[in-house]
Amino acid sequence: MNRLNVNGIDLAYDSYGDEKHETILLIAGLGTQMIRWTAPFCEMLAARGYRVIRFDNRDTGLSTHFSQHDPLDFETLARTLMSGQRPHIPYTLEDMSDDTIGLLDALDIAKAHIVGRSMGGMIAQLTASRYPERVISLTSIMSTTGNPELPQTSPEVMALMTRPAPNPREDEAGYLAQSTAFARQIAGTGYAFNEEEYHSIIREELRRAYDPGSIGRQIAAIAVSGDRRPQLAKIDVPTLVIHGAEDSMFVPACGEDTAKAIPDSEYMVLEGMGHDLPEQLFGSVIDGIVRTTQRNKPN
Fold it and tell me: What is the pTM of this model?
């Protein structure tokens, strides 16, 4: 693991594969760390002939945290947005998009293939639309456009996601139980949920960092980002949109809307997949990413 100063903050990252190969940059989702892009996934992708970089978004993992800010009050945020005002928040998705380019700058990488999941997909979308000269291809996984007419996440899922969790330093078993209940809720039914592997990832995240306020700050960044479809319409790089047929966080209509908003994009629906990435689907997802990186290249 390495750290670089980017845009006045530190970003933690690591790298797989030959540094001389084209780069695929992986962006993690809401409140999660770079290790959710597991080492086996990164190694499989790098074995296809790429340099693969994963990193901790700001406010997660071993990157700079913004814990000096007050915890998010969801009710106040909702009232402010409904009144048409813009709330004061620590950072935006645009800032996080700037971080991705800043990381490429710090690593002296002129262009990269950008892959993001969930919130990371939103960041990837913004990066492709705001920095077209730096993005070779885009893969947006289990994400959405911000279109206000799309079906919203169910109250049950939102309640599980935002419910205060036990302090894992005092009650690790309670923390794991609540986290696992949420993960099971959003997982698809097509593949067995690997509880042992999930607990291993959560424990590793806890060893790396514990900041219960970060997910709220990132939710706020998503909430103020608005409808991104006008920006997505400007994307002109090869694009793949991957979505789970059983996604309960962002229902399949969100993936369809993303593909519709980005010109000439490919839409790939994975049966049995929810808002997760089971190991059994690594091959299919990697095949899609690689196919997209090679689109429009001369034979």
Answer: 0.95
Alpha-carbon dihedral angle through residues 35, 39, 43, 45, given to the nearest 10 degrees: -40
Spatial contact of 90 and 178, defined as CB atoms under 8 Å apart: no
Residues belonging to the chain: 299
Question: How wide is the angle at C-alpha 158 spanned by C-alphas 156 and 159, nearest 5°?
Answer: 65
Residue 197: per-residue pLDDT: 95
pLDDT < 70: residue spans in the chain: 71-78, 81-82, 85, 298-299
Q: How far apart are CA 92 and CA 58, in angstroms?
A: 11
d(CA 140, CA 259): 9
**Rg (Cα) of the chain, in Å, rounded?**
18
Domain count, the chain: 1
User: Measured between alpha carbons, how far is 138 from 99 in angstroms, rounded to an integer?
Assistant: 17
Angle of helix 93-106 versus helix 119-130 axis, rounded to 10: 70
pLDDT at 155: 85
In degrees, rounded to 5, the angle at the alpha carbon of residue 259 between the alpha carbons of residues 144 and 266 is 135
- For residue 180, is it within any domain? no
Domain that holds residue 114: 2-153+213-294
- Residue 273 falls inside a structural domain: yes
What is the pLDDT at residue 162? 80
User: What DSSP element (H or E) covers 115?
Assistant: strand 112-117
Of 12, 50, 59, 225, whose CA–CA distance to 129 is shortest? 225
Nearest to 196 by CA among 210, 183, 213, 186: 183
Residue 159 lies in a domain: no
Q: Tell me the H-state helices in the chain.
A: 39-46, 74-82, 93-106, 119-130, 155-162, 172-186, 195-208, 214-223, 229-232, 252-261, 282-294
User: What pLDDT does residue 106 have?
Assistant: 98
- CB contact at 8 A, 114 and 104: no
Give domain status of residue 26, yes or no. yes
